[in-house]
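Memo to structure team: turn this sequence into structure tokens by end of day. - J.P.
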Amino acid sequence: MTGLFGLALVLERLALGERGMPLPWLAAALLAASLTLALGSVQGVAQALRRRNAPESEPSRWRDGESVRTGGRIEPPGPLLRTPLGGCDAVLVEYSIYRVPSQARIGGNPQARPTPPSAKGLEMVSFRVRNAAGAIAIDGWASLAQFPEADCDHAAGREGAARVLASEPWRVSTPDEAVRAGRELLGGPAGTPLALRLANPAAVRELLAPEGEPNAGRWSGGPPPDLEGEAAVAAVRARLARHRWLLKERRLAPGDEVTVEGIYRADPPRIEVGRGPSLGAPERGIRPGLPDVTARREAHTALAFALALAVVAAAAHWLVFSSGGQFYRGLVDWLRQAA
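Reply from structure team:
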């Protein structure tokens, strides 16, 4: 891409120089960038079309350390989770408890607002995906960002929020604590059940230990709770009732049809979706829908994106070069006068 941009930059600069355009290097850089992005998107289209024609990699050809893509239904080999807010069966759940920000200002500055209290958690048990060749274990944490988000702002959801806040240990989401939590999340043995709960300091102050009230929870670095069991749940329930909260949940449930993309490991057989080379790779993970469905969707997205970039590049060149550059020259003159 760098070489393509450099070539486009030189050619655009020559074309602008021949026409005596003002600010030729600036215009050349913008035009070259639009052209490079448009041409570069062709590679993404080609890759998406190849994937649409072959949406799955053949399990018999999988080799240790290679990237693979497969799909099937979620299958738990053991006990399931019960999601904290929705009360549904799952193998993986992400949930958030977030207070709706108030309109209050601080010190008359409309930009200075306190950080709203929020708590987020995820829980996972071992699971596998059953495809045409059998069942393959999934290792590592996979984001559920592409799965539907359930609104749990109902009586059962609020009760679940009170119970998970009062009954489970929480970590205060400082930068250092988040790093330690991430290492634990991704560093355990294959198939390790995971549970991670992070609450920001504002959530601790408002829900677990308000000033002048008894502590009703456990958090990293905090003192032992003053209240436990149902007394702690009742205290947190009452504190939640003082404000409006957004309660959201995403889950991966038994029987869900998914596409899995990650690194195959042969000993023991598994697909890594959140460890090593898979970590941070946006195309790897778990997405809703079987491979043929997700491959078609990705091809349509790639085509639409490439078309949009082509339209932008064509419009930019038309605005600069049409009618001898009249529009572009007028724009530069207007900017100079405004400055």
